[in-house]
């Protein structure tokens, strides 16, 4: 098989494929004795770059040569650059190093890898998605598609127990992020009239700064202070090597506490051996507020879809191994909680989806009939194709910023042409008018946001200029289109604005319907965009 699913995680990544019987299996990382590869890169020197657990072991002692949590930076407008030994690396290039490590894992075990599906958080915008795809290509992979992480988890859950229409809340607590997603599985018919199960994302929520690391940090502080109590040293007197020793052992202790009631941690405190004991009860007490935080996000995400009844709650992410998590979620959703391979479900779902795509395209010969060890012939991926269809949906809402001239005061509003969750490709047009007679040009600004409203009023600065961000709706300026107008253009000249969104991005176009001149050079955010945001260059909603 050369088709794989990849969970490119914030803290851990995982790669899976379908075995000869059509069951998803994870490729083991024998070097780290794990099913995962830590998403950590250590630039040891010019000639040696280390990815995985070994890189992680340098965080405290050589932190400035270690890159972690790069997923938070990928596709972000600030274009962060890392520099080591005179070479620069973009987040895409760092991500490609992690993907290359996963690729090498397959190859070192005699496999070949060609086609992949990579998972992304449901809340990723198009920039983050296209950057993730680029990272895959840079690692020499043929990226068939991306799939939302909760959708992949739901796919892997439903491949295990097929059910009719249901609404699933995916609670994904990973190492650095917490994602809540409500997905709907519904029966529908495909073009050839076959019953298929469609998976749609209804709502997303969470925090990209909340995850297992917070539990590690609490345990780290607890053990550090216990070491001080034992030795009479102050925290400042604890050496970097001792800190690294604690750091390395904290995660292991946390994992032990998921299985046992107490864990012992042996630390060399500045050279003298010390043993610290932590009980599960201690650990739960010191992190109870973090559990409560996740449950608040569950609540606020549910409020976005007030009419929805949750049938199943799926626990995903390595941190849901902690018994305190399952207990809290069970308390809120009694009898509805399911947990199966929480740290592998996303990669497995991606592997299922990748195989579905390959069968659809007929692109790969080894996905046809396979003989199983008991002599039966199975066509696993084809069966799955018959069952599922994953609709590509817009990850955000999109629209232009325009002036509403009704009422006594002009208002700068954002009109959502395309709303979050719409089927892609999505297209929408509307006609606007210049704000003034003889206006020389229009600077049409395009925004993305998380709102499902037709119109939102974004933040405006003290001069009344539209701001690119609105924390409540997560409004972001995507870029602008300059529409030059000929002399003597009347303020009633119709300008038709079109937004088209597909997997490759947002396309904005404006047509001066009087001259039929088409404008489509869309300037991305950054230095290209004119700092002058004054209202003179805007379009207004209604004509006179
Ligand atoms: P990502 O955030 O990269 O998607 P994962 O879903 O694999 O990563 O979750 C990684 C987190 O899960 C880490 O913080 C790790 O310490 C934690 N974790 C993994 N296994 C356990 C366990 N048995 N008990 C507690 N935490 C665990
Ligand atoms: Mg994850």
Describe the structure.
The chain is of the alpha+beta class and 544 residues long. The chain contains 10 helices and 32 strands. The strands form 8 sheets. Strands 1, 2, 3, 4, 10 and 11 form a 6-stranded mixed beta sheet that branches. The chain has a 6-stranded mixed beta sheet with strand order 18-17-12-13-14-21, sandwiched between helices. Strands 26-23-22-25-27-31 form a 6-stranded antiparallel beta sheet, with no helix packed on it. β29 and β30 form a beta hairpin. Mean pLDDT is 88; it is low at 363-379. It binds adenosine-5'-diphosphate and magnesium ion (MG). Adenosine-5'-diphosphate is lined by residues 9-12, 36, 39, 174-177, 211-213, 251, 254-255, 258, 317-319, 321-322, 343.
Task: Fill in the keyword field for this structure.
single chain; 544 residues; alpha+beta; six-stranded mixed sheet; 10 helices; globular; binds adenosine-5'-diphosphate; binds magnesium ion
- Which ligands are bound? adenosine-5'-diphosphate, magnesium ion
Approximate shape: globular
Extended strand count: 32
In angstroms, what separates the terminal alpha carbons? Answer: 64 Å
> Main sheet, how many strands, which sense, barrel?
6 strands, mixed
Low-confidence runs: 363-379
Proportion of helical residues: 25-40%
* Rg: 26 Å
Q: In percent terms, what proportion of residues is strand? A: 25-35%
Number of helices: 10
Mean pLDDT: 88
- SS-based structural class? alpha+beta
What is the strand and helix layout of this fold?
Elements lengths: L2 E5 L4 E7 L5 E3 L10 E2 L2 E5 L2 E4 L1 H4 L9 E2 L14 E3 L2 E3 L1 H18 L6 E6 L5 H13 L3 E7 H12 L5 E8 L4 E12 L5 E13 L4 H20 L8 H20 L2 E8 L2 E8 H25 L7 E5 L6 H10 L4 E2 L6 H17 L8 E2 L5 E2 L1 H8 E3 L6 E8 L6 E5 L10 E9 L6 E9 L5 E2 L19 E9 L10 E8 L2 E8 L4 E3 L2 E3 L14 E2 L4
Parallel strand pairs: 1-10, 10-11, 12-17, 14-21, 17-18
Antiparallel strand pairs: 1-2, 2-3, 2-4, 5-6, 5-7, 8-9, 12-13, 13-14, 15-16, 19-20, 22-23, 22-25, 23-26, 24-28, 24-32, 25-27, 27-31, 28-29, 29-30
Helix pairs in contact: 2-3, 4-9, 5-6, 5-7, 7-8, 9-10
């Amino acid at each position: 098989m050369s088709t794989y699913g990849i969970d490119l995680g914030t803290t851990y990544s995982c790669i899976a494929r379908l075995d000869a019987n059509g069951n998803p299996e994870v490729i083991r990382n024998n070097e780290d004795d794990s099913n995962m590869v830590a998403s950590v890169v250590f630039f040891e020197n010019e000639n040696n770059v280390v990815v995985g657990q070994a890189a992680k072991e340098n965080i405290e002692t050589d932190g400035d040569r270690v890159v972690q949590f790069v997923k938070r930076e990928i596709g972000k407008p600030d274009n962060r650059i890392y520099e080591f030994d005179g070479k620069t690396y973009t987040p895409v290039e760092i991500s490609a190093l992690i993907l290359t490590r996963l690729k090498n894992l397959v190859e070192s075990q005699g496999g070949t890898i060609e086609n992949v599906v990579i998972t992304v958080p449901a809340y990723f915008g198009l920039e983050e998605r296209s950057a993730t795809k680029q990272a895959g290509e840079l690692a020499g992979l043929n990226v068939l598609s991306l799939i939302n992480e909760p959708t992949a988890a739901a796919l892997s859950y439903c491949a295990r127990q097929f059910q009719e229409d249901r609404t699933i809340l995916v609670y994904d607590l990973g190492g650095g992020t917490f994602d809540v997603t409500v997905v709907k599985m519904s029966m529908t018919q495909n073009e050839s009239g076959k019953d298929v199960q469609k998976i749609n994302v209804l709502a997303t929520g969470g925090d990209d700064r909340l995850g297992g690391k917070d539990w590690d940090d609490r345990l780290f502080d607890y053990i550090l202070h216990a070491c001080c109590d034992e030795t009479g040293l102050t925290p400042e007197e604890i050496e970097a090597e001792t800190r690294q020793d604690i750091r390395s052992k904290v995660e292991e202790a946390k994992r032990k506490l998921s299985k046992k009631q107490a864990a012992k941690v042996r630390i060399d405190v500045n050279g003298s051996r010390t043993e610290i004991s932590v009980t599960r009860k201690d650990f739960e007490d010191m992190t109870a507020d973090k559990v409560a935080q996740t449950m608040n996000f569950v609540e606020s995400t549910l409020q976005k879809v007030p009419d929805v009844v949750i049938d199943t709650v799926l626990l995903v992410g390595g941190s849901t191994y902690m018994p305190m998590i399952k207990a809290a979620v069970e308390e809120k959703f009694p009898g509805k909680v399911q947990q199966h391979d929480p740290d592998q479900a996303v990669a497995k779902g991606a592997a299922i989806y990748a195989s579905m795509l390959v069968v659809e395209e007929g692109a790969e010969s080894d996905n046809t009939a396979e003989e199983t060890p008991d002599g039966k012939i199975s066509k696993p991926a084809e069966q799955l194709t018959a069952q599922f269809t994953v609709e590509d949906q817009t990850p955000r809402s999109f629209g232009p910023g325009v002036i509403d001239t009704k009422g006594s005061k002009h208002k700068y509003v954002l009109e959502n042409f395309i709303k979050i969750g719409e089927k892609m490709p999505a297209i929408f047009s509307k006609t606007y008018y210049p704000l003034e007679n003889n206006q020389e040009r229009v600077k049409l600004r395009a925004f993305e946001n998380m709102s499902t409203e037709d119109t939102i009023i974004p933040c405006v600065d003290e001069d009344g200029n539209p701001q690119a961000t609105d924390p409540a709706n997560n409004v972001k300026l995507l870029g602008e289109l300059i529409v030059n107008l000929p002399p003597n253009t009347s303020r009633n000249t119709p300008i038709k604005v079109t937004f088209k969104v597909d997997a490759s991005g947002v396309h904005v176009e404006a047509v001066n319907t009087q001259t039929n001149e088409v404008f489509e050079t869309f300037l991305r955010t950054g230095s290209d965009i004119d700092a002058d945001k004054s209202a003179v260059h805007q379009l207004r909603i209604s004509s006179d």
